[in-house]
Amino acid sequence: MLLSLPLLSIIIFLPVAGSLVLLLLRGQRALKSVALVVSLLTFLVSLPLFFLWQAGESGFQFEEVWPWVPQLGISYHVAVDGISLPLFLLTTFLMPLTLLFSWDTVKLQLKTYLILMLLLETAMLGVFAALDLVLFFVFFEASLIPMYFLIGRWGGPRRVYAALKFFLYTATGSAFLLAAIIALGVLHRAETGVLSFDLLDLYAIGLPANVQVWLFFAFAIAFAVKVPIFPFHTWLPDAHVEAPTGGSVILAGILLKMGTYGYVRFSLPLFPDPTVRFVPLFAVLAIIGILYGGLVALAQKDVKRLVAYSSVAHLGFVVLGIFSLQPQGVSGSVLQMLNHGLSTGGLFLLVGFLYERRHTRMLDDFGGLWKIMPIYAAIFLITALSSAGLPGLNGFVGEFTILTGTMVANVTYAVLGTLGIIIAAWYLLWAFRKVFQGPLNNPANTGLKDLNLREVVIMAPLVLMFFVIGLFPNLFLDKINPSVEALLTRVNQQGQVQAMSEAEHAAVDGAVLADDLVSLVAR
Amino acid sequence: MTLPTLNLLPILPQVILVVAGLSVLLLDAAISHSSTSKRLLPWIALVALVGAGVAAVWLGMQPGEPMAFQEMVVADGYAMVFSIVVLIAAVLGVLLARDTVPQISDQLGSYYALLLLAVAGMTIMGGALDLIVVFLALEIFSLALYILVGFNRAEPRSAEASLKYFLLGAFASGFFLYGVALVYGSTATTKLAAIGQTLAGQASATGIGGDPLVLYAGIALLIIGFGFKIAIVPFHMWTPDAYQGAPTAVTGFMSAATKAAAFAALVRLFVAAFPASQDVWSWALAILAALTMTLGNLAALRQQSLKRMLAYSSIAHAGYALVGLVPGTSEGASAILFYLFVYAFMNLGAFAVVLMLERLGEDDVLQGEFAGLAQRQPALAATMGVFMFSLAGVPPLAGFFAKFFVFSAAMADGWVWLVVIGVVNSVISAFYYLYITVQMYFREPVEPEPMHRLPEPSSRRARARAHATAAGAAGSNGPAGTPAGAAALASSPVALYVGIALAALGTILIGIWPALWADWIAQAVQRVLGS
Question: Using the beta-carbon criterion (under 8 Å), do A71 and B522 form an inter-chain contact?
Answer without folding.
Answer: yes
